[in-house]
Amino acid sequence: MSYTEKSIWVSLISTVCIFGYYFISVLSLGSMPSEQANSAAVQLLFQAVVTTVVVEIILHSVIAICNPSDAQQPADERDKLYKMRANSVGYRILILGVMLTLGHILLGSFIPEFKSQNAVATFPLLSAYILFFSFIISEVARYSSQVFFYRKGA
Question: Is the whole model's pTM more than 0.70, yes or no?
Answer without folding.
Answer: yes
